[in-house]
Amino acid sequence: MKKAIVYLSIFFLSCSGISAQEYPYQNPALSPNERAADLVSRLTLEEKANLMCDVSEAIPRLGIKKFNWWSEALHGFANTNDVTVFPEPVGMAASFDDELVFKIFDATSDEARAKYHEAMRNGEENKRFLSLSVWTPNVNIFRDPRWGRGQETYGEDPYLTSRMGVQVVKGLQGPEEAKYRKLLACAKHYAVHSGPEWSRHELNLNSISPRDLWETYLPAFKALVQDAEVRQVMCAYQRLDDEPCCGSDRLLQQILREQWGFEHLVVSDCGAIQDFFTSHKVSSDAVHAAAKGVLAGTDVECQWNNHNYKLLPEAVERGLVQEEDIDIRVQRVLKGRFELGEMDPDEIVPWAQIPASVINNEEHRQLALEMAQKSMTLLQNKNDVLPLNKSIDKVGIIGPNADDEPMLWGNYNGTPVRTITILDGIRSKISEEQLIYDQACDLVEDKVTQSYFSKIGINGKKGFKATYWNTPDYSGEVIAEEYVTNPLKLTTAGQHEFASRVKLEGFSAKYITEYTAARDEELAFKYGATGHFELFVNGKSLQEVNNWRTLPASLPFKVEQGKTYTIEIHYAQLNDWQANLEFNFGKEIPVDFTNLIAKLKGVDTVVFVGGLSTLLEGEEMPVNYPGFKGGDRTDIELPAVQRNCMKALKDAGKTVIFVNNSGSAIGLVPETQTCDAILQSWYGGESGGQAVADVLFGDYNPSGKLPITFYRDTTQLADFEDYSMDGRTYRYMKEEPLFKFGFGLSYTRFAIGEASVPVRALKKGEPLQFTVPVSNEGDRNGTEILQVYLRKQNDPEGPVKTLKQFKRVELKPAQEKIIDLKIEPESFEFYNDELRQMTADSGEYIIFYGNSSDEADLKSFTINLH
User: Fold this and answer.
1) Known catalytic residue: 617?
2) Any idea where the PA14 domain is (predicted)?
């Protein structure tokens, strides 16, 4: 069999124009490491430097194809069209179902492989976001709800994050015993990273206690390295104890490689090497930064363009780094590529045979729905107003997120084939005659825009004159001209052209029109773009942005009666991002809920669908509404316009059910008074709207539990840039939050009985095994999530309690199950200040078990370790 594989490899390489002579690196029968070592010996120094860049150009003389290290698969294959979009990770964490997480990422890796090979067989180029290396999962600890990227994580708890993260990696990479990896996964961002977004390129964390480092910030990374054999680790932007994480010998050598035994790739966050000399000022220039990154152990540099690692030959010439050091890194790079089978014929790589028909197939759609259902977390249900009766006379569906597809997709997402909005989901339960819909208000703004688009025109025609070029700089032949008479809302998502014959990439456009003011007034330009956008009025540039995502913004502009204004937009598609352009303008009018209340006359029950969206929280975003800064938040309360809308509804006598979409915890103290029920629905993916409707109308009994603490308000939080865990998360919080970690209601009632514990004394290294009875005392089928926490006695600096085990328990009415639980020996390890390491010390440990982290919901017993 091995000979057949070798002959097939020789034939493939011969057809590719390489000499028929078989070099060891061309032999699939050898190990990836052996092949990589041989290939390194045949490379020039310049070629080695090229291979250490995230965009690695082809080396035809050796049959090395172009390769991109940067693709994303946070909750489905990202930045691609017609894929399955699963719920955002923080929502997945609320399911406490790591077995389902594995299935989802196994499906995601199937779709990524199918997308990649379909593109390659169609002659497309291996480009960013269409590759076999995916920079997923994000296993940072969500320590502060203000962090806009916390939605990408699996919550605030190290154990839950580790359990989920391990299954993500296993699903993405495929069985460890397989010859080839399905994909190469990546644990990010290593280490001690969770905002703020606005200071991450300069932030220096120089007071992290060893306890916080080892008990909170590192466990998930260790688990992914040792339990899942993750093939990539991404180093973070900020400094830790004066050293940038991508230049830290302590993080990358002492801990990652020497202590944990990591043998694979370290990749930089994009631009992190550049930060060495532009932001952190620890290197004098690009050459020194490249040398520092290599010597510390960063094997691949991600950079938007002009990679610093391309300067490594100069660094070698100047004696800043040895070529032997570079060889070690390049061997790791090539080993990863050989593990994928990316240099071998598709015929011998089983993953290359996955058909395109798996993409968004029915099985994957069902997985997306199942996870969305399991993520639904019921926080309040006064007088059992939920579930709603499908024979309800009338129900109002109100709010800015009710009919919003992109909100459900979260961030780092692909574009699904179809999306079921929350309004769509509710329409599947009741008739149109029973339903009254009104957006009612914006997410944040307390004004609505009265569009003036119908008042513009040029050359005697209405709207904007649009001119397109299939070049990125408005040069060459004009490929299309047309007049656009509706507010601009253009996208290449779903392979849509901006206009006929306009390419999907590398194009530019200009839009021009005129407006004559009827009166003196202040108008607002409303715009958003992915790509280059510049707005001119009468030839003067008013705004220029270069965005990698579309972020709606508003720009005020005063006009004078009788004066004509020439409005012009220049747009160009950038990098490998999908192109998007939105533009409208008009007069902003204050929100008034009088008409809304009148519209809802005779309606007793209202479902208000609001919260946040990834237009407000996310990665390093130019969003600066009140309470928001750079993708993060400065205030965790719900935006005032939404609070006011729900208060107006309540004051009008309505029963208010609040469906809160967010990737983070919201301070919902006012809403607990205004609203009769609160359903936390996260960002639910392509089927999120169906899952919400299933819960609202009782076709699914909610079982989600909070993977993060819901604080009462911002006063319960320490300074955002303070990374001490003191007072943070359920593990160290001393005050009473609004909703505790692990909390979530059901439509049925569960009882958790007394544990049966065979032994109360353990030897070090022994697991703790015990059983707990769980019963359903209600009249509906339901799922309880049994949670086990541990506290070390006589450890005043340690956590109040910390999660160490959980199990989903499905029960029919009146059914009881005896649940077997096992606490592994390492669960008793805490940081020992004297030994300066994690140890399981002799002494007493309290074991808590129940259905939330609230001690009122927990029972306990004591174990002696000796």
Assistant:
1) yes
2) 459-601
Dist CA 559 CA 541 (whole Å):
16
Is the distance from CB of 155 to CB of 142 less than 8 angstroms? yes
Q: Residue 577 has what pLDDT?
A: 80
Radius of gyration of the chain from Cα atoms? 28
Distance separating alpha carbons of residues 866 and 362, to the nearest angstrom: 53
Would the CA dihedral through 654, 657, 663, 666 be positive or negative?
positive
> Which positions ≥6 away from 18 have C-beta within 8 Å?
26, 62, 63
The full set of domain ranges for the chain reads: 44-65+186-202+222-340, 372-440+596-732, 447-590, 750-865
Other beta carbons within 10 angstroms of residue 837's beta carbon come to 12
Task: Give the model confidence (pLDDT) of 163-186 as tens digits.
Answer: 999 999 999 999 999 999 999 999
What single-letter amino acid sits at 330?
V
Backbone φ and ψ of 536, nearest 5°: -120, 140
Q: Domain spanning 44-65+186-202+222-340: which CATH class is it, in words?
A: alpha beta
User: Residue 513: which pLDDT band, with cuts at 50, 70 and 90?
Assistant: very high
> Which of these, 703, 75, 641, lies nearest to 400 by C-alpha position?
641
Distances from the Cα of 178 to the Cαs of 72, 104, 175, in angstroms?
A: 23, 19, 5
Number of residues written out for the chain? 866
- Among 617, 637, 676, 694, which one carries the catalytic annotation? 617
| pLDDT tier for residue 717 given thresholds of 50, 70 and 90 | very high
- The overall pTM is greater than 0.85: yes
C-alpha 671/C-alpha 687 separation (Å) is 26
**Cα–Cα distance, 660 to 54 (Å, whole number):** 38
User: Is residue 456 a contact partner of residue 567, using CB atoms and an 8 Å limit?
Assistant: yes
Tokens of 567: 């409005």
| Alpha carbon distances (Å) from 75 to 101, 135, 152, 378, 834 | 10, 11, 9, 22, 42
- Asked whether 764 and 865 are in contact (CB, 8 A), the reply is yes
**Mean predicted lDDT score pLDDT of the chain:** 95
CATH 3.40.50.1700 fits 372-440+596-732, yes or no: yes
752/850 Cα distance (integer angstroms): 7
**Rounded Cα gap, residues 404 and 32, in angstroms:** 46
Taking Cα atoms as reference points, which of 409, 468, 433 lies closest to residue 615? 409
Can you give the pLDDT at residue 21?
A: 53
Contact between 684 and 372 (Cβ < 8 Å): yes
C-alpha to C-alpha distance for 188 and 173, rounded to whole angstroms: 16
Laid out side by side, the sheet with 802-811 consists of 761-762, 858-865, 843-850, 782-792, 802-811
Parallel/antiparallel/unpaired status of strands 628-629 and 632-633: antiparallel
Tell me, yes or no, if 258 is annotated catalytic: no
What are the pLDDT digits (tens) for 652-692? 999 999 999 999 999 999 999 999 999 999 999 999 999 99
List, in sequence order, every residue forming a beta bridge with 739; answer none if it has no partner.
710
Instruction: Name the residue among 754, 756, 747 with its Cα closest to residue 776.
Output: 747
**DSSP at 285:** S
447-590 architecture in CATH? Sandwich (2.60)
pLDDT at 493: 73
- SS3 state of residue 122: coil
Compute the distance between CA of residue 659 and CA of residue 115 in angstroms, rounded to an integer: 35
Amino acid 809 reads V
CATH number for the region 750-865 comes to 2.60.40.10
CA torsion sign for 481, 486, 492, 494 is negative
d(CA 414, CA 416): 6
- Residue pLDDT, tens place only, 582-599: 999 999 888 899 999 999
Catalytic-labelled residue, pool 47, 243, 269, 694: 269
pLDDT band at 192 (very low <50, low <70, confident <90, very high): very high
Instruction: For residues 550 and 313, give the distance between their C-alpha atoms in angstroms, rounded to a whole number.
Output: 38
